[in-house]
Amino acid sequence: MFTEYIKAALKHAKYVALEDGTYMATVEGLCGVIAIGDTIENCREDLIQVIEGWIALGLRMGHSIPPIDGYTIDVSSEPIYVVE
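Now predict its structure.
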């Protein structure tokens, strides 16, 4: 579930070369998701970690996670009972 969502988010990533030679990436629709790296690949790796943390924090705080390309992350607020 997370992997497909993150892959979809990465397809919408916008990378910008900064004046100091580093790169910054954002994803439209994911407010507060910003990554920075010395190379585009480092920036992409950081972006993956930032998205993962953004999802985890959003779910913990009860925020809805916006769909991307039909991928959603929904967590039921209903408790799960395991019968053994």
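The domain at 2-60 is CATH 3.30.160.250 (Double Stranded RNA Binding Domain).
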